[in-house]
Amino acid sequence: MRRREQVLESRIERIKRKLHALGDLRPGSLSKQYNVCGVEGCRCKASPPKKHGPYYQLSFTRKGKGTSRFVRREEVAIVRRQLQSYAKLRTLVDDWIDAAMELSTLRLEQQRQRGAAAPRSSART
Ligand SMILES: [Zn+2]
């Protein structure tokens, strides 16, 4: 049991180090869009149409509120990295919770065993 505890402790330490190393992050997802304009005779109304775009839209939900905004083409790569960092954050936190739950249960069991051992040792003395 002691060993399992150490395994879990070092797993949590590793997670913390990875969290510490995370760069800029943001929640959401990127989508690509093509639009049609209002200009008469524009290529976007030809047949076949050549629509304008792509435009990149970032959608995210924060505190129950959904929002979206456009992202400049030259900033798409940066935003993608930020989104990936956020995904990594969620995975790491989830792993931490799994390890922490098991570790907490182990500690409670140890506490209980110490509690159960105490009266017996006091009876012996
Ligand atoms: Zn057009």
Protein model, in words:
The protein is of the alpha+beta class. The protein has one domain. Helices cover 54% and strands 20% of the residues. It has 2 helices and 3 strands, in the order αβββα. It has helices at residues 2-20, 76-124; strands spanning 29-35, 52-62, 65-71. Strands 1-2-3 form a 3-stranded antiparallel sheet, with helices on one face. Helix 1 runs antiparallel to helix 2. The longest helix has 49 residues, at 76-124. It starts with a helix and ends with a helix. Residues 37, 39, 42, 44, 52 line the site of zinc ion.
Highlighted features:
54% helix, binds zinc ion, 125 residues, 3-stranded antiparallel sheet, alpha+beta
Arithmetic mean of pLDDT:
93
Number of helices: 2
Proportion in β-strands: 15-25%
Beginning-to-end CA distance, first to last residue:
28 Å
Give helix % range. 40-55%
The hetero compounds bound to this protein are: zinc ion
Q: How are strands sequenced across the largest beta sheet?
A: 1-2-3
| Poorly predicted segments | none
Number of domains: 1
Set out the fold topology.
Blueprint: H1 2-20, E1 29-35, E2 52-62, E3 65-71, H2 76-124
Antiparallel strand pairs: 1-2, 2-3
Helix pairs in contact: 1-2
Bound molecules: zinc ion (ZN).
In short:
This protein has a three-stranded antiparallel sheet, with helices on one face.
